[in-house]
């Protein structure tokens, strides 16, 4: 479900009531989205794939900045099929790195740097959390 402009204004108005409130936009990696990313990237080189992630990350960053949102939540908890698990791990890792770089890039040229949040929705099962995400690579 996409937010309307009035929804975004309402969410940001809540910040005036509670300045410590953080508003995040949630991006869900569903099976169809992952299948599309896999097929679109299967014939691409690593550089082309990284460029696609970078372009998407810049679009997400620009949306977040334009609507004064505090960050993004990556929701991939529904991708637990064994055949796509390792691909999902790679997609989430690569996209998270691209987002971090896009946020850093914006701050390096902006007079008023802003700290953006990137969160990852986890499963209620701790083992799936460890299996589904490559935390060692995400932090790089």
UniProtKB/TrEMBL annotation:
Coiled coil: none
Cross-referenced PROSITE patterns: GH18_2
Superkingdom, taxonomy of origin: Eukaryota
Every GH18 domain range: 1-140
GO biological process: carbohydrate metabolic process
Pfam families: Glyco_hydro_18 (PF00704)
Stated name of the protein: Chitinase-like protein 10
